[in-house]
Description:
By secondary structure, the chain is mainly alpha-helical. It has five helices and two strands; from the N terminus they run H-E-H-E-H-H-H. It has two domains: 1-61, no CATH class; 66-126, no CATH class. Helix 3 packs across helix 4 and helix 3 (72-83) crosses helix 5 (109-117). The model has no long low-confidence stretch (mean pLDDT 87).
Amino acid sequence: MGLYFQLHDHNIRQKEVCEFLQHLLRHLRGHVVVLWDNANIHGGEAVRELCRRVPRLHLERLPPYAPELNPDEGVWKHAKHELANGCPQDLDDLWEELLASLDDLRRSQKRMRGCVHQGELPRFMP
């Protein structure tokens, strides 16, 4: 199990979504299934075109207003817990602490599975 992410200091658009999906496709073999919410940036012509061009990419939308199903909520819960008592000196320090927290989570298969299992998704992995 892996945690793949890109952080931005601005609101992302479809361009960044497509770049991230292409990043995943470069790093993962076989079929790639992405679970995501119904944000407007997750739809649109650019994303549909990418899916048409790359048949091994499968995008599955979560139901609207269903954060309890989204494993991403567990990731951010972990990060917020790690950062809660910190005192970054500036924005660069905050970015550094956030990346350290996400890297810590990425290295722990137990915690990664916890992010998936904390939600109410049907069990799809041991």
